Amino acid sequence: MIQEFTALDGAILIDKPAGPTSHDVVDAIRRQFAIKKVGHCGTLDPNATGLLIIVLGRGTKLSEKLMSDDKVYEGAIKFGETTHSYDADGDLLASLPVPPLTLEELNAAATEFVGDLMQTPPMVSAVKKDGVPLYKLARKGIEVPREPRLVHIYNFRFSAYQEPLAYFRIACTKGTYVRSIAHDLGQKLGCGGHLATLRRVISGKFDVANAISLAEVLKLAPRELEKRVMPFLRLMGA
Predict the structure, then answer these.
(1) What percent of the chain shows pLDDT beyond 90?
(2) Sequence-ordered alpha helix ranges (H) in the chain
(3) Whether residue 224 sits in one domain with residue 195
(4) What residues contact 131, with CB distance under 8 A and at least 6 apart?
(5) Is residue 195 included in any domain, yes or no?
(6) Is residue 45 among the annotated active site residues?
(7) Selected catalytic residue, list 45, 70, 87, 116
(8) What is the pTM of this model?
(9) Alpha-carbon torsion, ordered 69, 74, 79, 83, to 10 deg
(10) How does DSSP classify residue 237?
(11) How, if at all, do strands 212-213 and 10-16 pair?
(12) How far is CA 149 from CA 176, 177, 182, 223, in A?
């Protein structure tokens, strides 16, 4: 017997705020609406914001499909400060003067990251080594060798620069660590740098402009939530 889809078999687009983890968002929706199966398609770091695709019910079967889509991010890099996590959450490792930089020089440097890129995951990441997430090892001061991974950068451009902050937009494949690019660019410029802010604006065919904030979602009545859910069959063609 073929089970019919319900109004809650699908996905909802969340505009994640800074603070909660992607898993926190999943837990909040699961508890609020008593939905057994809830997942997300692509982790955002706690202080990253923007598009988080939340899959519900039988929509969780499409997690891998939706997670594999290309992504677009916007954010800012702070030059002159290097952190152990490559972002603003990390411990400060070094502080150096920032050389005079122009927007044109930054974009020239950014072009060297476009194309195929072998990227080593940062120690503060969810990548696992022998079943243990790297960030747990990093908390203990342990650093282990990591296998570089092939990613692809379609486009990487800076739109504004107000020393020490440079504002950018990047289009890339799944699994790209944008904070690693921020770190590597800072090293290339000789002053260091880290990812100050990050916002995911596009994932595949989905845009954050069509997302709803987590706070708004949690205020919805169950019937109102159903109206927000993109049905399973529509997602199949996404």
Answers:
(1) 77
(2) 22-33, 63-67, 103-110, 134-139, 178-189, 214-217, 222-228, 232-236
(3) no
(4) none
(5) yes
(6) yes
(7) 45
(8) 0.92
(9) -50
(10) T
(11) parallel
(12) 9, 10, 17, 43
**Bigger pLDDT: 238 vs 1:** 238
Distance CA 120, CA 3 (A): 44
pLDDT in tens, 91-104: 999 999 999 999 99
Please tell me whether residues 14 and 82 are part of one structural domain.
Answer: no
Do residue 44 and residue 78 come from a single domain?
no
Residue 192, judged by CB atoms within 10 A of its CB (0-12, 13-18, 19+), counts as buried
CATH of the domain at 62: 3.30.2350.10
Tens-digit pLDDT profile for residues 10-34: 999 999 999 999 999 999 999 999 9
Tokens of 148: 């570089």
Residue where the block lists tokens 């169950």: 222
Q: Which two tokens mark 23?
A: 């898993």
